[in-house]
Design a protein that fits this description.
single chain, 371 residues, alpha/beta, Carbamate kinase, Archaeosine Trna-guanine Transglycosylase, Chain: A, domain 4, 13 strands, binds adenosine-5'-diphosphate, binds the ligand N[C@@H](CCC(=O)OP(=O)(O)O)C(=O)O
Length: 371
């Protein structure tokens, strides 16, 4: 089967610090992406750069900070960005070049089953026609609380959606370092990561440029989402011709994030990444083990504490006794029902409350964030 590769390119790689597109770099990336087509891959591009491309045209001196200013800049810049890709890709492929198609998504689109199925249907059709889906956040309509903000998260969700073989997050630094290399030039690169621990997350700082937003931290969070969905990720730099092919083949200039997990079906992607959580349940060690390593469901006996007002069918976060979030699941109980039976045996629970299912969270509706 043809392998799907999702490539994310950040603002810092496509635009200059003063704003405006760097057309030479866009032509270079088009060349690199076309080489993946030549190698027989199906390619999706997640691109940033709309705000950075547009802010000068609209009259701002530097990257705007206010939401409505960013939205206006993105509205101008997104058109410029697509035009630049269209031009750059017209020079590649057969008969008139590789076609490009614009896909703008918001977080709300991902949490709406119908809309995201439609987006997937469109992407599948474009890929069948060897047209490159160029994805960005729909900045003009995304409200602040619900924004991805950075496109790293968006790229990981897209990779999950299309069940990509690999996610490549390209930036201006050749991977994850023990510290921000712009601040400490002695920092060492980490070549391979198997588990994203809290300590690893602490290494990552914010953005180093005036146009980027997420920095290394959001890239690692994105790698974590990809890995959870069984998609290996790469964070690094593509500077010279052939670098992107190398990155796909395992010899790239950056950090590789490995995973042995399986792809997640749509329903579990929704539970794990897209749904809004309505509460939090803290479980004891036994329940933590059962959920993370035993492939078991969560029973009332293992519950220590609950927070939030939730109802059957809502999604809640589950934390361990160290207050680390270990996963998410769909609850079969209302919060008040759990209050009444937390810590009790199954027999006792049956005597006290009437619920459709005895499991508080069934394993089929559970996604763990570790392991
Ligand atoms: N531990 C780290 N290792 C590598 N880069 C880091 C680290 N911590 C922070 N950074 C910064 O993250 C920046 C890349 O993020 P960002 O500016 O958001 O790029 P993009 O626009 O490509 O998304 C790098 O230029 C670097 O300065
Ligand atoms: N949707 C925004 C992306 C924001 C952004 O700067 O993201 P990134 O460069 O990936 O950290 C844009 O196109 O400007």
């Amino acid at each position: 089967m043809t392998e799907r590769i999702v490539v994310k390119i950040g603002s810092s790689s496509l635009t200059s610090d003063e704003g405006g597109l760097n057309r030479e770099r866009i032509a270079f990336f088009a060349h690199e992406l076309a080489s993946l087509y030549d190698a027989g891959h199906q390619v999706l591009l997640v691109t940033s750069g709309a705000v950075a491309a547009g802010f000068r045209k609209i009259g701002y001196q530097s990257r705007p900070r206010l939401v409505h200013e960013k939205q206006a800049a993105a509205a101008v810049g997104q058109a410029l960005l697509m035009q630049a890709y269209q031009e750059a890709f017209s020079a590649h492929g057969t008969s008139g070049g590789i076609g490009v198609a614009q896909i703008l998504l918001t977080r709300a689109d991902f949490s709406n089953r119908k809309r995201i199925q439609n987006a997937l249907g469109t992407i599948d059709e474009l890929l069948r026609h060897r047209t490159l889906p160029v994805v960005n956040e729909n900045d003009t309509v995304a409200t602040d609380e619900l924004k991805f903000g950075d496109n790293d998260t968006l790229s990981a969700l897209v990779a999950n959606l299309v069940k990509a073989k690999r996610l490549l997050i390209l930036t201006d630094t050749d991977g994850l370092y023990t510290e921000d290399p712009r601040i400490n030039p002695q920092a060492k690169r980490i070549d391979r990561v198997q588990v994203i621990s809290d300590d690893l997350l602490k290494l990552a700082g914010g953005s180093g440029s005036s146009v980027g937003t997420g920095g290394m931290r959001s890239k690692i969070e994105a790698a974590r989402i990809a890995m959870r969905g069984g998609i290996p990720a790469f964070i690094g730099r593509v500077l010279e011709p052939g670098d992107l092919r190398l990155a796909v083949e395992g010899g790239g200039k950056g950090t590789y994030f490995d995973t042995s997990l399986q792809n997640l079906p749509m329903k579990k992607q929704w539970v794990g990444f897209h749904s809004l959580t309505q509460g939090r349940i803290t479980v004891d060690e036994g329940a933590e083990k059962a959920l993370l390593h035993g492939g078991k469901s969560l029973l009332p006996a293992g519950i220590r504490e609950i927070e939030g007002e939730f109802h059957p069918g809502d999604v809640v976060e589950v934390a361990n006794l160290r207050q680390q979030t270990i996963g998410r699941g769909v609850v079969n109980y209302a919060a008040w029902q759990i209050q009444a039976v937390a810590g009790l045996s199954t027999e006792e629970v049956r005597r006290r409350v009437e619920v459709n299912r005895i499991e508080v969270i069934h394993r089929d509706e559970w996604v763990s964030f570790t392991g």
